[in-house]
Amino acid sequence: MKKVAFICVHNSCRSQIAEALGKKLAGDVFESYSAGTETKPQINQDAVRLMKQVHGIDMESTQRSKLLADIPEVDVVITMGCNVQCPFLPCSHREDWGLEDPSGKNDEAFLETIRLIEEKIIDLKRRFSLE
C-alpha cells in the first residue's frame, strides 16, 4: 500500500484535515500521514470542531502536529499550497493542491477547505485504484 504524506509548514490545519480524511475515505488504498517543518502546540481548534461536526472525526484523539522526521518514508508527497517555501520530502510522486489556509477565517472558509480536501482525497483514491 502506498504511503502518502500531506505536508505544509505548521502541520496544524489543512494537512491535518487531509490526514484525517485520507484515513477515513481512502484507508483501504493508501496510508495517510501529515507533517511540517514546524509544529504547533495543538491542531487548529476550528478544524477540530468542524471535522467532528461534518465527519465525526476527533482529530485530537488520533493526531498531533508532527515534523517531517516524525513520519516514515513515503511514496507520495502532497503539499497543501504553502504560499511560502513548501517543505521538501523525497518521494516518487509529488503534487501541490494549492489550498488557501483557512486559519483565522470564518466557518464557511473552513467548510470549503474541508470540502475541497474531501474531493481531492476521493480523486487521489480513484487514481491510485487505477494503477
Care to describe what's here?
- With 131 residues, this protein is α/β, with parallel strands linked by helices.
- The chain has a single domain, classed as Rossmann fold (3-Layer(aba) Sandwich).
- The protein is built from 4 helices and 4 strands; from the N terminus they run E-H-E-H-H-E-E-H.
- It has a 4-stranded parallel beta sheet, with helices on one face.
- The longest helix has 24 residues.
- The protein is globular.
- The termini are close together.
- The model has no long low-confidence stretch (mean pLDDT 93).
Describe this structure in a few short sentences:
This protein is 40% helix and 15% strand.
Task: Kindly list the characteristics that best describe this protein.
single chain; 131 residues; alpha/beta; Rossmann fold; 4-stranded parallel sheet; globular
- Structural domain tally: 1
Gross geometry: globular
Low-confidence stretches: none
Order of helices and strands: EHEHHEEH
Range of helix content = 25-40%
Major sheet: 4 strands, parallel
Spatially, the strands of the biggest sheet line up as: 2-1-3-4
